[in-house]
């Protein structure tokens, strides 16, 4: 806009009428006869056929404004370099230069705003965007040496770069005002040297103040699609540690989940640092195993998508977020989501039901220890697809990594201390009906962790004193964890330690840690009953020195008899299950 003086105040209309009209914005623009002949040496014709006078006749208002904005932004960025140690001031200055950049960028949009704008002029907007495109993309068959005498005012960058042998460069991507240039086999230092040479050459071939600025080198880069790329960025040749720079992919998008962002970013960093897909595969399989075993934080699996109630069709189910918002509204008419609000929700494991029926608010899974994340859904539908889009480019089949890995769905957690033996068995039965073909069910002894069908294995049962000591230590550790977490939350929220904590901030990781520990301590009374039972056998059958006076077979019969008596006292439905 500055170089070609595009402005409302410098436009002279069209070279040739369009459909018999010479429209300019919402009006007609016709020049007096003979004006073009008078100014023919001082005009500039844009690619869309609009005529503008040069700056030596009249400098446009838009050009003046943009010049001041850009000069001010340059001064702010120069000031940033002098305060590298003051991080707070750097953030303030960075926000200011970014604001100036946005103002300059939306100037083009202001000229094309036909619905909400005060001065719509599509002709100026078309001239701007077509001139930028022509500068970058229009092909020319002449070599670089001929460009110095080429009379056309818009020199073309792509063909110059591709046709210059000494650079060995190839343009692989070009956006509105930027180019990505591939330098095969070059080092980082060579890339910086060639990049500056290219920028200086192209800048010299274009009228001021059009400038091709060399910004950065990507050493390790993935170009996925238009406006979707990621790489390790170096801005100076002396930079030793690269910066992870991503545009348009899941690591910077808000419609996914934190686990998706973390996993994609970590996988890309491993790939860029090692170029070893086997390490990427190991990380993926380890992460998926933790998710399947319920060892991941719920906070990393919360969706937060925009909801627009009243705009969804009745022909099909609404999006999960809209369903959660509708349930909240049904429970409390005052809790209505505003148009465009982001509603948090998670997907739980609840049998073969619709996705919309398995979407619940995070509070629902935090306050109910019987609800669990749908690990298979999150892995196969949320985590794997973005990884496939990236690693399929290098020939890796990410989905086969998951399908071939051994899977274990944990029925219970030996550190949970939350289920009675009967409840744990019932959950195991429910889990067995949930995708038994995909998973192996496992239940572990509370003390030693070996596989067992009961809460305590046979070896630990016949060593009751040592088992009691281990269980009591586990209980004390859990109680201390709860006390420590509650102290953190009470201190943060200003709540006395003797009162319940009502904080429910989903942005705080301590909320999820506190709920997790509270779930672990729900069954401490049941675990105490187990300890009492073991202590009973110690008191009944051990002598003064702690030695048992009966053989293990007798003790086993006594245990079985006690269990049978417990079953007989059960309710009818539970007895039928047992």
Automatic annotation (TrEMBL):
- What do the Gene Ontology cellular component annotations say? nucleus; zeta DNA polymerase complex
Q: In its UniProt entry, what is this protein called?
A: DNA polymerase zeta catalytic subunit
- Cellular location of this protein? Nucleus
Cleaved signal peptide residues? none
**InterPro entries linked:** DNA-dir_DNA_pol_B_CS, DNA-dir_DNA_pol_B_multi_dom, DNA/RNA_pol_sf, DNA_pol_B_thumb, DNA_pol_palm_dom_sf, PolZ_Rev3, Znf-C4pol
Question: What does the similarity note say?
Answer: Belongs to the DNA polymerase type-B family.
Q: Which Gene3D superfamilies match?
A: DNA polymerase family B, C-terminal domain, Helix hairpin bin, Palm domain of DNA polymerase
Keyword 4Fe-4S in annotation: yes
Identify the species of origin: Hermanssonia centrifuga
